[in-house]
Amino acid sequence: MKSQKLYEADDKLIVLISDNYNVLQSLGSFGINLGFGDKTVNEVCEAQGVDTYTFLAIVNLVINGYKAFDDFSRLSIPTIMHYLHASHEYYLDFQLPFIRKELVEALDEKDNLARLILKLYDEYAEEIKKHMKYEEKFLFPYVESLLDKQPLPNYDIDTFSKHHGQTDQKLRELKNIIIKYLPSDGLRNNQLSATLCDIYNNEEWLAKHSDVEEEIMIPAIRTLEKKLKQNDVSAKISSMINTNPGNQDALSEREKEVIVSLVQGMTNKEIANHLCIAPNTVITHRRNIARKLQIHTPAGLTIYAIVTNLVDISSVEI
């Protein structure tokens, strides 16, 4: 009987498996070998090079449907991708051929209906292969490029998410046809029943695999994309400021006051009144600021004022 306990790093891994034997399928995808004795989840993960937080996030989702992750940035994307890649290998190289072999043994291939069932299964298997090969060809290299901090152009995780749909419709159809319409003798009935149990397990595994992609992988990669974009903006600002180290020093105190006034949303006329200077003088100051900093927009000046401590970010209305 499955336990609905929410597992933690200090729980013994053997207890987790005893409660939920299906976790055994996941261990291989993480690269965790058996023979770990009475070690805790954290001890096993550390010894075998697996991120504990990510392991528990996936296991608790698969076992209990737990989705309330507190911090997607803590998830290890290399661990997630290793898990998904190994899961693809398991499914394509073992699970799909194994079930087909069971079907062949359970069906009379001389029967037209049996041949149609095998054809339906082959169509399903081909659909799954295309789905997983797409991820291997496009998604996985894109994620690698993110990890290398050189994201590939014209692709992002939202593009993948929009085309990431369920692929088990043919499997459900196959299962229902066997149950409702396929006559069999006693021996074949036993074989078909055993095969159907494997198909049900296969259907459940595929749904959980899809959940890991939707609930863990996609949000984790989206978080990484945002982080890289933020870092890229910061780097550009830093480069812009540091291209000429004398830029800030070259600004006069009056020019700094003009920048602060602009950041606060004042018009040229309001700045002139505030600083007791002529409107044309304000315009001249703004031209000099743009020339010295090579920043020509209010948004750019706002960022510059924040990172150079001319203004406090809390006082800026974004």
UniProtKB/TrEMBL annotation:
Keywords annotated in UniProt: DNA-binding, Transcription, Transcription regulation
Keyword presence, Protease: no
Domain of life: Bacteria
Pfam families cross-referenced by the UniProt entry: GerE (PF00196), Hemerythrin (PF01814)
SUPFAM superfamilies xrefs: C-terminal effector domain of the bipartite response regulators
Domain HTH luxR-type: residue ranges: 244-309
Signal peptide: none
Gene Ontology molecular function terms on file: DNA binding
Gene Ontology terms: biological process: regulation of DNA-templated transcription
Residue ranges that the Swiss-Prot or TrEMBL entry lists as coiled coil: none
Transport among keywords: no
Protein name according to UniProt: LuxR family transcriptional regulator
Species assigned in the record: Prevotella pectinovora
